[in-house]
Specification:
The protein is 9% helix and 32% strand. The protein has 396 residues and is mainly β. It has a single domain, classed as 3 Solenoid (Pectate Lyase C-like), CATH 2.160.20. It is globular.
Length: 396
């Protein structure tokens, strides 16, 4: 075995084990959560991650919070959230009224019509009574506190745009039945939720960054019904079966315009499949670390274009789970024409990617959203995925 391969394997396995020690041992217990970052020396804080290097070195990030809105890359780079609005401070984690939201609660902030940058004044575990419907031009910014949404229905984006969700720990999300909920666009609406951590329906210009997501009833992040212009970045995901669904169904053709960037995430222990599972559309999977999967990592149907660049795929020891890719609901003569490529990826412990379709770069223009970094960079960036322990007055 080449020396470089052995060296790389040792580095990445060490990075993975070191990283996991900073994260929750029992994701179902709020009290068991550990943060994924240490305070950085300002002169050494740059990692090469373009999103983090845009803001994390600033010791005055707390007074410059809205600078974050200019830091996104990828297909969701135009998501400005509540950059142009006032700051709304959430003070109440307990009184969640889905019909008449209480001022000071996250739900009251999320449904307002004007742009808002939503922050929190203390550590909170928010257990919602019904799904949280978020209006357009909102940022939910958990920096500076331990903010968890858990043990109830979680977040829904429905026919909205310009939403940023940052530095939230989302876990143990549950489905909800049909109930009255204050919908930003329709006022009252009746409808249930599937138990996703974050559901994105018919929405665009969305950035989900530096969140930790685990152990939800359905998906961790699902994007369907014509949603597009999405970046999912710097998140830590663990202990879940069907991780991310991109596209409603093989028959729903409006998802042909979907463009999603999945970048700088750490896909950790206990993940099974759909990391992501894609239909139609264009998907840039770039500079992520996969530390094993129990069925497959990237799958799809209905001829999606998948551009895998600069990722690290570390297969489990199980010989039946070495393949990164899975072609769903299709015969060989069908999927072999789908444009799936692996470029600059590192395959470890027997991992392999089955490419298909065209090799020319021109075939991947709509699935290209940022320049891939070398995989060697990920030994430094991966340990900071997930929610951060930011302290006021220090670089985060």
């Amino acid at each position: 075995m080449p020396t470089l391969y052995l060296f790389s394997l040792v580095i990445f396995l060490h990075a993975a084990s070191t990283f996991s020690r900073h994260l929750p041992e029992e994701v179902s217990e709020a009290a068991g959560r550990y943060y994924s970052t240490t305070q950085l020396d300002r002169e050494q804080c740059r990692t090469g991650n373009p999103m983090d290097d845009c803001w994390r070195c600033d010791p005055e990030w707390d007074t410059n919070r809205r600078r974050l809105a200019d830091c996104a890359v990828g297909f969701g780079k135009s998501a400005i959230g509540g950059r142009d609005g006032e700051v709304y401070v959430v003070t109440d984690s307990d009184n969640d009224d889905p019909v008449n939201p209480t001022p000071g609660t996250l739900r009251h902030a999320a449904i307002q019509e004007e742009p808002l940058w939503i922050i929190f004044d203390h550590d909170m575990v928010i257990s919602l009574n019904e799904q949280l419907l978020i209006n357009s031009y909102k940022t939910i910014d958990g920096r500076g506190h331990d903010i968890q949404i858990a043990h109830g229905p979680c977040i829904t984006l429905h026919n909205v745009s310009n939403v940023i969700i940052h530095n939230i720990y989302i876990h143990d999300c549950l489905p909800s039945g049909y109930a009255a909920v204050w919908d930003p666009s329709l006022q009252y609406t009746s409808g249930g939720s599937d138990g996703d951590g974050i559901s994105i329906f018919s929405s665009r210009d969305v950035w989900i960054d530096h969140c930790t997501l685990a152990n939800c009833y359905d998906g961790l992040i699902d994007a369907t019904y014509g949603s597009t212009a999405i970046t999912i970045s710097n998140n830590y995901m663990l202990h879940h079966n069907e991780v991310m669904l991109m596209g409603h169904s093989d028959e729903f053709l409006d998802d042909k315009n979907m463009q999603v960037t999945i970048a700088f995430n750490y896909f950790g222990e206990g993940l099974v499949q759909r990391i992501p599972r894609c239909r139609h559309g264009y998907f840039h999977v770039v500079n992520n670390v996969y530390s094993g999967w129990e069925m497959y990592a990237i799958g799809g149907s209905a001829s999606p274009t998948i551009n895998s660049q600069g990722n690290v795929y570390i297969a489990l020891d199980n010989n039946s789970t070495k393949e990164v890719t899975k072609h769903e609901n299709s015969l060989d003569e069908e999927w072999k024409s789908w444009n799936w490529r692996s470029e600059g990826d590192m395959m470890l412990n027997g991992a392999f990617f089955t490419p298909s379709g065209e090799e020319a770069s021109a075939s991947y223009i709509k699935a290209s959203s940022m320049a891939a970094k070398p995989t060697s960079l990920l030994t430094k960036t991966a340990q900071y995925a997930g929610s951060l322990s930011c302290q006021v007055g220090q670089a985060c």
